Amino acid sequence: MFSAANTLFTGPLRGSVFASLTQLIQIFLKNNAFHSTIPTVFGSLTKLTTFSAPGASLSGDLSFTSGMKSLNYLELTSNSITGTLPAFLGNLSALVYVYLSNNLLVGSLPTELGLLSHLLMFRVASNRLTGTIPSEIGALTTFLNTFHVENNTLATSDVNYLCRPNFSLGVDCTTVNCTCSSCCCSVSACVD
Fold first, then answer.
1. Residue 154 and residue 70: Cα distance in Å, rounded?
2. What is the spatial distance between Cα 88 and Cα 112, in angstroms, rounded to a whole number?
3. What are the backbone dihedrals phi and psi of residue 174, each rounded to the nearest 5 degrees, phi first?
4. CA distances from 59 to 11, 91, 132, 148 (A)
5. Is 83 exposed, middle or buried (0-12, 13-18, 19+ CB in 10 A)?
6. Are 85 and 114 in contact (CB under 8 A)?
7. How do residues 33-64 score in pLDDT, each as one tens digit?
8. What CATH code is carried by the domain that includes residue 112?
9. The whole model's pTM is what?
10. In terms of residue numbers, what domain contains 117?
11. In contact, 187 and 125? CB cutoff 8 Å
12. What's the domain count of the chain?
């Protein structure tokens, strides 16, 4: 485990520090001021199960996660992550928690997200996502209990297929038809 959470580090995150840590399984970088892109060397940490760096002043895209087959916890909330949600996320079958709210992500939600059969929480609120909410998300009824996509420009005719007890659904009701949401319409009512 590597933890530099809440240490208020400033300056770039240096990939050379992590290059030889090939057995690393957890990285915690919460609340720092790196003002840095995510080092590409993180992509070689194939045994990583947890990458948690909310509010760490990181930028770049999600391409570094493409080979992380053991990754089950991805948290990059409140950074400057750009690019799209890549389709290969659906191949990261160990993913349980995805927290990517308050970034600069664009494009659509990939249909491949429906392949994440162990997904429990998915939060991508307050980005620049467009398109529709894929119906494939409806296949994730076994574990999925949180799905927050509000404050984007996503639409669909109906997300009521996600309605079930104890399910937290965050969508924009001006563009999405939902009658069951515990968190619908108002971003301020949704605590992410």
1. 29
2. 7
3. -75, -20
4. 13, 23, 26, 22
5. middle
6. no
7. 999 999 999 999 999 999 999 999 999 999 99
8. 3.80.10.10
9. 0.89
10. 2-189
11. yes
12. 1
